[in-house]
Design brief:
- It is a single chain.
- By secondary structure, this protein is an alpha/beta fold.
- It has one domain: Aldolase class I (TIM Barrel, Alpha-Beta Barrel), CATH 3.20.20.70.
- α6 runs parallel beside α7.
- The chain is globular.
- The termini are close together.
């Protein structure tokens, strides 16, 4: 089994992004949702992008943002992929399909037809459903629910991932990649070196 790809999300400091890549992160997530404690303006996002240029793929996270806003931020920062974490419909993602990641919040095992409307996009991120939050809940869930999903597109597993849980989540979900934010933080938006190092090591262990 190949190592699951690692996405460190909610990065707010260039030094954290640089360290994450050194430790093995393949993707760096930047949050452009104004209500998030990890929200970034374009200026800081560009600083982070410069710190990891050519070493990891940059993913911008948006929640119900207008398409012109997404396109403007993506161009200014130089985003490689665009993660849509709100109530977006397939038509909303169509202008960005070849680099769009749709976040799905599940409370039951999905059927293949649940993914059919999204078949033209780059990939998926799957986490457990929360009654009020658009992700970032830090809550674990039944990761094995997605193990039988078709894998025509990359699929990240998220939600409740920590150095203690990620190896099991990789094995139970069979996901192509893992996404973590609060599970490697000392405070919202502040990544912890020890936790990130342990997390990346555990991903490798879980992928064996």
């Amino acid at each position: 089994m190949n190592r699951a790809r690692i996405k460190i999300c909610g990065v707010t400091r260039p030094e954290d992004a640089d360290l994450a890549v050194e430790l093995g992160a393949d993707f760096i997530g930047l949050n452009f949702y104004p209500q998030s404690p990890r929200y970034l303006g374009s200026e800081r996002a560009c600083e982070i992008a410069a710190a990891v240029a050519g070493r990891a793929r940059l993913v911008g996270v948006f929640v119900n943002a207008p398409a012109p806003t997404v396109a403007s931020v993506a161009a200014e920062v130089g985003l490689d992929l665009l993660q849509f974490h709100g109530d977006e419909r397939p038509a909303d993602l169509s202008p960005f399909a070849d680099r769009a990641i749709k976040a799905l919040r599940l409370d039951r095992p999905p059927a293949p037809e649940d993914l059919e409307p999204w078949q033209g996009i780059w990939g998926f991120l799957v986490e457990g459903r929360h009654a009020a939050l658009y992700g970032g809940t830090g809550e674990s869930w039944a990761y094995e629910m997605i193990r039988s999903l078709p894998r025509a597109q990359p699929l990240f597993v998220a939600g409740g991932l920590t150095p203690e849980t990620v190896a099991g989540a990789v094995r139970r979900s069979g996901a192509w990649g893992v996404d973590v934010s609060s599970g490697v933080e000392s405070a919202p938006g502040i990544k912890d070196e020890v936790l990130m190092r342990r997390f990346c090591d555990e991903v490798k262990r879980g992928s064996k």
